Structures are given as C-alpha cells and as structure tokens.
Amino acid sequence: MYLLKRVYDFSTADLPAVLADRLWPRGVAKARLDGVLWLKSVTPPDELRRWFHQDPDMRYDEFCRRYRQALANEETQADLQQLRQLHARQNKLTLLTAAKTIERCHLPVLQCVLQGEIDIPNVSV
C-alpha cells in the first residue's frame, strides 16, 4: 500500500517513507524526518513544476501527462525501482510532499506509476 501524506503530518509510524519534493519543505527540521529517504529525482522537473504552479486548476491534466512522461525517463527508472523495493519489504511506503492539496499534486501520479497503473484517478490522460 502506498500512502500519500503531507510532510507536516508525518510521524515515525509512517515509515518507511520518501520525501518526493525537489525543495526541502519550509519549517521542517531535517532531524524531524530522520529515516525518510529524500529522492529529488522522482519529482517533477523544475520547468514543469513552475509551469504547473502558474495555473494549477487549468493545467493539472496536462501536468499529469507530462510528469508521467518525465518518470518514464531512463535515468529515473533505477530510483523508481528503489522505491518499489522499499515498498515490497514492508508492503507499505508513505510518499510525502509539502504540497497543500495532495489530491491535485504530483503524488497521485507517482503512486500510479509505482503501482503500474495506466490511468490516474480523476485525471483524463
């Protein structure tokens, strides 16, 4: 099971966990996320992230499509495999982000890719 959670709500009960944000979350001490893997490589590229944040409501579907393409990149595959292996060890992995709205950020796309799903819920891809 993959859990999606805001980093500000993280507790050690959520381990194993990965911070899937390119930037370190504001106001969060690194010691608070001890044991959490920080993988910037599985996050949306900076250019895509900036483009999306200009109009998140209107651009979400296209953002999901582009992010899925970015995750298909050969260099990202080893890190995605690392996450799948981490998940397989305990049949659980918490994906963390500082995004305010988890349902409309990159984590649902990452979750679907990790699970091998083609469709992203509530998104027409």
From TrEMBL:
It comes from the Bacteria. It holds the Pfam family DUF488. InterPro entries: DUF488, YeaO-like. This is MarR family transcriptional regulator. It comes from Chelonobacter oris.
